[in-house]
User: What shape does this take?
Amino acid sequence: MARFNTKSAKALVTSVVKSTGRTAPTQQGGRGHLRDPRSELFLLAVANFVSQQTFYENGGDRDDRFSALVRRLAVEDPEWTAGLLGWLRGDGNMRTASIVGAAEYVKARLDAGATEGPANREVVASVLRRPDEPGELLGYWTATYGRNVPKPVKRGIADAVRRLYGEKALLKYDTASKGYRFGDILNLVHAAPDPDRPWQGDLFRYALDRRHHPDTAMPPASARILAAHRELMAVPVAERRAVVTGAGGAERLASAGMTWEALAGWLQGPMDKAAWEAVIPSMGAMALVRNLRNFDEAGVSDEVAGVVAAKLSDPVQVARSRQFPFRYLAAYQHAPSLRWAYPLEQALGHSLGNVPALPGRSLILVDRSGSMWSPLSDRSQLNRADAAAVFGTALALRAADADLVEFGTSSAKVRYRKGESVLKVLERFGSLGGTNTTEAVRRFHKNHDRVLIVTDEQATYHHYGDPTEQVPAHVPVYTWNLAGYRVGHGASGTGNRHVFGGLSDAAFRMVALLEAGASSDWPWARK
Assistant: This one.
């Protein structure tokens, strides 16, 4: 006879981001909660653009904390750390942090003489997903640890080179601006061609000739794209614009692997309407999003704009581009023409495909305090406050019944209607000063089935305690940490208190699993 595993029994649900029980002040003087090293590294990694200043932490200190955590866990927990790094570059789509992490992983394990766990070579190869990244990793290693590159790093890079190097990669990424050219990397790591890619041997030889004998280097006969590119480069400057505007100009640019970045230099003149319209058909979705303002300023026709719009709003293209949802918000805010508004709204919706339709009543709180307004990176036009608002609004619009609240020093409800544009709702959010999270929870929590808080967690002191303590223990509280600071605003990892990290929507799918009684796991372990 069953005594314990009955219908009335509920599975113990656990969360992977766990507090240690120790406390420390938040940056606003509230009582914060420290996390175990894996949890701290995960939250930092998914929000870490490397060398980027945040409101409360300078880039150097942040990088040092990241590197120290990777080095520690590479020795103490190599399986977990290797899984994090591979996932971070893959589904997490964080390039620089994963490359730095892989280098620090190998260095720590070599210094410690550690041999158990994933091979160093495999970890290096796992984070190199784009043809310029072998050079990035070498650049980081030699700048940090000198020119004596150990064998596991060389072998991991060689594995990646065989997978990544092709004709288009050579044209786009093997440029004079790089410290390590393709030929330098091939020499350093002694990468042999992939036997299943018979053309690669000729390509490797050409990359070496391009580096060491640029005046006489000739592309191999089998390399059609390189040959077409060479022919294009031989066209006299005075005749180049006629090539672009003439019949078949767009096809000729595409067959020669001409990117939009290279076209202006080749033309040696402005990127006018004709130039953009010739190269747009071969541009990827990410490049299109970045250049909407340029298209408008050049006067690109509505017909060509329709082609751009169709590509922007195509769910397959959105998935393939793997852009963060906030990229579409940045494009919407900075593109002058309204003709891009609806395609960007559609693209944003596709990129938020994991946001669940929550049943019951939900309280969704979006942090609009001063610390959330620092840019996501030195090159970003967007801040964490708006990124938080994107996710909070998407949750509210899809939920059965939700109260959407913005908070800072004060707090207030944000109006919205079902079926309304996410981008339009965002225009109603403001800037609200401090981070009185506890007061916002106390003011607006009224018998909700769950509470979701999108924040950097740096809550101010409140005499009633931390924000999560204001919610009854049987009501789940989900915190999305967008900054990766060391101290969190509440305990997590036990009961109904859960913390997720990052600026993508991948964690949102965990809400339904947790509420169904399934314990969460690290993203790379859920495959």
Residues 1-13 have pLDDT under 50 and may be disordered. The longest helix spans residues 59-76. The radius of gyration is 25 Å. The chain is about 45% helix and 10% strand.
